[in-house]
Amino acid sequence: MTYSSNTPVSLDTLIDHVRTGLQQSPALDRLTRSIDVSAHLSDLSDALVGHFVDEARREGATWAQIGERLGVTRQAVQKRFLPDDSTRPGFWDRATPALREVISAAREEARTRRKTYLGTEHLLLAILTLPDDPATAALATCGAPAETLRAAINGRIGVPSGDPLPDDTPFTRLAITALQHAHREALRATAPATTPSHLLLGLITTGDGLAHDVLTALGIAYEPLRAALQTPPQP
After folding, report:
1. What is the per-residue pLDDT for 28?
2. Burial (CB count <10 Å: 0-12, 13-18, 19+), residue 119
3. CATH number for the segment(s) 89-230
């Protein structure tokens, strides 16, 4: 199956976008902008394919079937789409200070519970440490205030006890997936940076993990949460 016409973006559209405001500027300025636009389109392209790879996996497609559609081996498609590195520059370059604070707090949540891994539940607990963040407000709007979520997670993994572990703990694969999905959510929203709100959505779109299970058990669904995050707070 091919798809070569009626695409939402044409080359002429991109050329016009690059030229806008730079018609009288040196050609090298337009070249620089075209490089920036191309890099952004590459990010969007990866996110677009990744979105539908996830969808195909949820519908039961095997990695071999997905690889066949992409024209690569099962091993190659798994290497591309199975998360194995949360520190890639594309993520950290776009992370806001608030998101970096969340990830730092998630490490502390894991350490104080003496876990040898950093899971999605620790990322969700860390989001709840920001009471004034839009992510926490949106959760409350959707019927899951911070204290309810915290109690639900503590009921699953227990409360901190004893001395914290001395070292940072590695991300689980699902936690890395959530970070990658957060990056994708930021691109989908055409946001200039990745925030705790995007991470919260990513914790749901992973489709698995303790954070996902707790959120869905409390009735939190992707579309209502996304709508709540897009609604300006009331004065």
Report:
1. 94
2. buried
3. 1.10.1780.10
